[in-house]
Amino acid sequence: MNWPSLGRPIKAPKQLLVEGRTPEIFFREWIEAIGLKGQLEVRDYLSLNDLTPFLKVFTGYKEFRDMVTSVAIVRDAEANPASSAFDSVCAALTAVNLSCPGAIATFSAGIPRTGIFVLPDCRSPGMLETLCWSVLRADPKSAPHLQCVTDYLACLRKTKAETRNETKARVWTYLAGRGHFDPQVGRAAQAKVWDWASPAFQPLSAFLKSL
């Protein structure tokens, strides 16, 4: 298996592993915004099925053994409870002889420390776009635009148009309306759309800072 993110040398003691290229771009912008650039590197393990083999390769590098002091893994809850996602990541960590934290959004003892954050909020089902929608909903200025998005998707449902993932569709529709022609949340982060000081982002910001 070829993971492009493993082609980059390890230069930071703290490593953040995320699921997919879009989250990788998104979190790179986030850690720069909260002052962690240079201390923390973001790598994409591609998909949930790839996490264990990715970790086996990554933890086998001499640079990993010599330099890395902390590893955090972020993944979506999807439609399942956050606890299910947490158990899945713990199984991957255990498979490569890394410790598992005692609870979501905490860190294990020892070197390297490990932590797990399950999007959107370590409790609810959902994903990165769920978190982004929460940020938009928390901004009163966005309310009229979000109502337009909601009305548009309701209209689509009346026509029996297939929307495979309504959570992503909501966010993408909002971003498309803003004139960002690539509606992925990572590209929107590069365009400085997201308010990193939003209360909805604070639990994950605190997790990243404690890494």
Please describe the structure with a list of short key phrases separated by commas or semicolons.
alpha/beta; globular; 211 residues; 4-stranded parallel β-sheet
Describe this structure in words.
The chain is an alpha/beta fold and 211 residues long. 45% of the residues lie in helices and 11% in strands. The chain has a four-stranded parallel sheet, with helices on both faces. Strand 3, helix 4 and strand 4 form a beta-alpha-beta unit. It is globular, with a radius of gyration of 18 Å. The two termini are 28 Å apart. The mean pLDDT is 94.
Write the layout of secondary structure elements.
Layout: E1 14-18, H1 21-33, E2 40-44, H2 51-58, H3 62-67, E3 70-76, H4 82-95, E4 113-119, H5 128-137, H6 143-158, H7 166-177, H8 185-190, H9 202-210
Parallel strand pairs: 1-2, 1-3, 3-4
Helix pairs in contact: 2-4, 5-7, 6-7
